[in-house]
Amino acid sequence: MHYTIESGKVWGVAYRIIASRVAEVQEYLDIREVNGYSIHYTAFYPAALSPHKGPIPTMVYIGTPDNPQFVGPQDPQKLAEHIWRSRGPSGENKEYLLELADSLEGLSPESGDDHVRDLAARVRAIERRAAEGRASGAVSASGSGVSSLLHITG
Question: How far is CA 122 from CA 42, 45, 60, 83, 150, in A?
Answer without folding.
Answer: 32, 31, 27, 10, 19
